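Good morning C.,

I know you're traveling, so I'll keep this short. The sequence:
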Amino acid sequence: MSGHKNGFRESNNLQRECLLLLRKNQQTTVLETTLTLESFNMSPTEINIIKRELSDIISRPGQTKGFLFSQDTVKSLTFGKCLYLLSVYHLETLRAGCGNMLVLFSYLGEQSYRTDIAMSQAITIIADQVFQVFLGEMSSQTRAPVREKILIELIYALLLAFVHNDDTVRKAADKYILQLLDAFPQLLWNRKALTTLLDLTQAVGNGAAVQGHATLRLNLPNSTETITLPEDFVGRKSLLNDISELCTVWLRSAKKYAPVETDSVLQEYCQQFQHSSFGFLHHQGFSLIVQLAANQDTGTDHQSNFSSRQTASSFVNSLNLKSVYLGEVGGMVQISKQLQNDIGNLEEILGGKLKDTLSKLSEGESIDQNTFNGDLCRAAAFVISQKSVVYRYLLHYICWAPIVAFKEESVETGIFVWTWLLAARPDLSALVMHEIKDAWDWSIRHDVGLFNSSVIPPSPLSIPKTGQDSYKITESLRFYEKAPSDPKPHCLLIDFLQERVTLVRKNDSCQMSIIQQMLLNSIADPSKLSQQPNSLAVRFRLLLLC
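The tokens, ready to paste straight into the viewer:
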């Protein structure tokens, strides 16, 4: 509490001594501010103390590379400039400690001291140090929606600053983006960050297509923001190269850490071009997505077992499947509206088909796998299309049906629609994961797959070799004639959980706690684990994940 009081007292002192910094509606330049500050009646001793403190702050080793800021440089600054810089440092440090970094770029973009190299370098060094304070504050906080909201707002502002027409702001944004993504990699596959980056690439690409000297102010697609591009053609082409390089590195890094989630977000982004009157044919962001999908080169580090399946064909096929089923569901919804029927009736129809499938499985009947896959994808597409409604009844069957069917094909389809749901409807993530957990627990209780401990294979060392006990040999060998329980569906589910852990361990404590409970339930009774030889690898994968 004492720290908060000291911070409040320091903030009040700064406001009294440097009120012009806080008046956003008062259009004052840095020169006018410093002249006002120099009018303060300060003794030589107080001035030396202020300059010494500023020198200690700016000259800290290891903070900023590329600037040599000595004490002599600080001494060359006037008292008003020193007090201004010191006030900026303390005020923005207080803001950064509260999670506010958006004001910092107004100092970097200030044009009034562009001719003063010392002031420009000092502001850049102070901004770097304040950003480190912000990173430390965010890293010390627990995973919470408030922190994630702050991080998303900042990465959005940094992306806009990356295409700023001022070189200082653009270079600072480039540096801060890399530092922020390194500290919080979950921003790589964030929907808002990815779509903003792709939209910026398109907007800059449109500007670079204009030849000659021109003043361009372009509206950012899917946003109310307006960006101003360099007036010269060479500058616009250079900016396009920079944003394209950032976009390529960003997408590759995202696919390296979270390939399935990233593909889901990119596929959802691509689906908007179905109704764009062929505008995607000249879309820079869309072109980069296709190019990246065609040249899968994500490396081997930090890759889950899912990433081996993320090829160009799987990306295109997934996009096509999602488009087909969203189109079918869109037609169903449109017809229901035209007939003035309740759209909620579609939930009963789609859920009823999955319910009938589970009834057949419980009675030991076989099902048509293609029909099952289609019903599951239509149900997921319907939930995704109704953004403002939560269909719990339908979600229950979407999450349970693949595990109850417990075939490799059904679980693969289930993972496909679950990943689609979690990416397209993040508001349902906790509900979807709870249903998957309940279905997982059902497989444990009913001795399915990896948890089938009812059949114990005989030890080869226990087979007698005497003739009078030959019947025991026959009884032992009968085990190998039985069809062993297939643990492959559980292997796919473990891969899915591993992918989710990579995604949510730093930013979603709710999903992480659900996955932890699933793993704890899996090993709560080790005797439940299958002892069949074909389950050995799956057991190891489960224990490694735990």
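Safe travels,
E.
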